[in-house]
Amino acid sequence: FLANGEQGHQNLEAMKAGMFLRKVKSRTWKRQRHYKLQEDCKTIGYKSSWAINSYSTFSISDVEAVRAGHQSEALLSVADEFPADRCFTLVFRGRRGNLDLVAESTKEAQAWIQGIGALMENMENMDESTKLDQWISDWFSKADLNKDGRINFKEAKKLLKMMNVDMNEEHASSLFKMADKSKSETLEDQEFVEFYKMLTERAEVLDLFQDYSSDGQSLSQCDLEEFLREEQLEGEGSYEHALQLIDRYEPSDTARMNYMMSVDGFLMYLTSPEGSIFNPERQDLFQDMSQPLAHYYISSSHNTYLMEDQLKGPSSVEAYIQALKRGCRCVEVDCWNGSNGEPVVYHGHTLTSKILLKDVITTIANYAFKASEYPLIVSIENHCSIEQQEVMARYFRDILGDMLLTNTADSSELPSPEALKRKILLKGKKFENESENPTGEVSDEDEAAEMNKDSPKLQQNLCKELSDLIFCKSVHFHSFEHSRTSAKPNEMSSFSESKFGYILTSYYSKLLYFVLHNTRQLTRVYPSGMRTDSSNYCPVDMWNMGCQIVALNFQTAGMEMDLNDGLFTQNGCSGYILKPEILCKRERLFNPENPEKRDDYHPLLFYVKVISGQQLPKVKQKAWFIVDPLVRVEIFGVPLDQAKQETKHIDNNGFNPLWNETLQFTIHTPELALVRFVVEDYDKASRNDFIGQYTIPFTSIQPGYRHVHLLSKDGTSIHPSSIYVHIKITEQ
Questions:
Q1: Active site annotation includes 70
Q2: Which of 47, 126, 215, 546 is positioned for an S-S bond with 130, CB 3.0–4.6 A?
Q3: Locate the EF-hand domain: which residues (predicted)?
């Protein structure tokens, strides 16, 4: 079913036979490893040539892309040694590093490139029930320790431990015997599926199903319509929608032909994307993209070139690829004089490694519009001499070509994302007019200047060729009054997080002016220079004020990036989210500190009944322990909305914990609220361990019975881990 034609079959056979490939980390680090596709066609095993028989493995589903040729820094560094047609790169999801490989021949490289590509495509195209069968057969092969195609009770007990289930022996034994129809004291394929289904039977879903089933056995189209209207609060079109759901999720042909849904189909629907907490209508592009740029939040990265910390970590073009693939629409380039007249990019005055500016611009040109067609802003911090600035200007012009927006026509408003599709905008210092030669003023966003406050500011000349290419002009922030009367729309100030905090406190009575400023001008905020570990600040305060470009260290996982990912998951992951109307209207300004003073103030009550959890992953450091999970719901938004509540913890059950607890919140400004669901392993002696999370804009939540599909710390899926909740939203 995988091999498309003879060639596809040969590729798979070659991969299953296994072969030596060179793993490359740098020009000097190149090691032979044996790589082999496992029999399940879903995992690849690899080992060092000297390891006797212990293969480490990774799953094909963890691979996001296969790049053929010299498409990574490591492979470019060995380009003179290994031709492009023998080289390829596996790119993994999340923040896991790439795997750069060199085959012995072009034919072998092609077998892996095409073979992995076909396997990935096959996984992409699986429907939900095939995914579930796949998941079950994965567990089967993990449990079948002696590989005889059957599982005895001892292996089944080990499996339960692996699956995070703490079940007493008696109960496990009775389930095992019920599934062992052949009375062979072992479970074969289909018997194991039965065993798994008994294990994962969802009593709470069965109860709900029977509440709406007329005959206790199935849901008719009318039963399902009633459920959709009453519980999921679907209005018009529920009857037609019920039929679509039966068609899409009912596994039994007979039931489907009779317009009925079995409990299996009902569970399939509830665990599908349509049954998830995220409203599918907000998944794709649904916002008006024709308003001025200042009316949008823009997904923005800080010191994009860094893979790790700010002092000694590596700089890499790979960091730009990762950020752009995640829908980032504002990247940062710190340019310094390099040797041989070649400008370099790195974090100045530190030990971070240097990369060539031309490589960065080439990478930006290649990846700028892969995830989103909307404009990309390149924020330039320029520390180069006039000579190297001329080289910079030439590279931007020549490499970006037509993508570069050079027209800075004056108008009273910034252009819209729609008008700037597939355009790259440069932000940096710019002459006011032909005769001006700005020396001495170091603009606010100059982070090197911020870090070296005590040293005298260097006078810097600017080259005209570079100035002419700048669209967003970096300017020093004087006052809101000055901005209101004198600023042009394409002028932009940057604030470090500490300066932003200072404005928030010292201008407290004038916060409306900040909101007003952000209806017309772009504002960029970036992390303090003190955050040398690349940690992040919470972006919510800045978003509440209408700041558009709130730059975060994309390489650092955690709550702050969860919020960023949560906000930007909607609207087609385009990297642009239209700000709420309350932050765009100049005539009726909104103050996030006093949300109840707005004209149309309608606070909402938000009830989350946390019902159960499904197949929560183990905490890595404690592989031998079953988790004690609790769920915390956190609200981020205007200060009045910030809140968190948690359930009690459940002892020793990561497989199907039941909480049945209701948490209640008042939401004063729904348009600005984000909801983060966090699952943790309770530990009374030390800090709880993180298990998974999911963050969603409040306005994208679907009411009713919903599954929250958990993500890892890195923001990648940990399917099929989820929590099952009931959501109710009413006016206060």
A1: no
A2: 126
A3: 131-166, 167-202
